[in-house]
Design a protein that fits this description.
Layout (H helix, E strand, L loop, with lengths): L9 E4 L10 H4 L2 H4 L3 H22 L5 H15 L5 H11 L8 H10 L3 E6 L3 H11 L7 E4 L10 H11 L6 E5 L2 H10 L2 E5 L15 E3 L5 H5 L2
Parallel strand pairs: 1-2, 1-4, 2-3, 4-5, 5-6
Length: 227
Amino acid sequence: MSKGLTGIRACVFDAYGTLFDYASAAQGCRGELGDNLRPLITLWRDKQLQYTWLRSLQSRHADFWQVTQEALDFALETLGLDDPSLRQRLMELYMRLDAFPEVPEVLRRLKSVGFQTAILSNGSPAMLKAAVNHARIGDLLDAVLSVEEVGVYKPHPKVYRLAVDRLGASAKAVSFQSSNAWDAYAASAFGMRVVWVNRYGGRKERLPGSPDREISSLAELPALLCA
């Protein structure tokens, strides 16, 4: 077992892919999508992230709801899926993504031993509120922070600074959890302690920073922080 992290006051979580299963929107339309299910999940997610990075580089910010729609339109067109009702259904489902099964209990345990807990996400405030309410975890979070407060997407350092400033903790006293390797590495480069939740068996990035720990599920997190 990995040695625990010490000196942590706050646990900050990425939202999509870490707390909430972004694939669950498309899985809710598996009957309509058929063999296009997996390609749509992958392409929609890839374009969604690419558009956040490209908009940040161009200083042409749009909120994550718009970006998510534009990424879906690209994916549907690429796959030859011209169905307005399907598009509407997919976007509706994205507003109430499933939380990963271990999430409520992990947050409950962290709160019970005195950690501050927060979300730090690219998601718009309305999207994050909907996801948190759907998962019924609002009472387990001290803050839900959106990049809309700084007007630029991850991995810009302003995003990670937002969490440090809002929680009143030094970067070294924050444990940041993300399933996205690029996000984990960027938070580490900023100065946070980082646990990479490698749900999808990804490879290590060749980027500044280095996660302090790697786990495959958030269920492993309390053992690292509550020992």
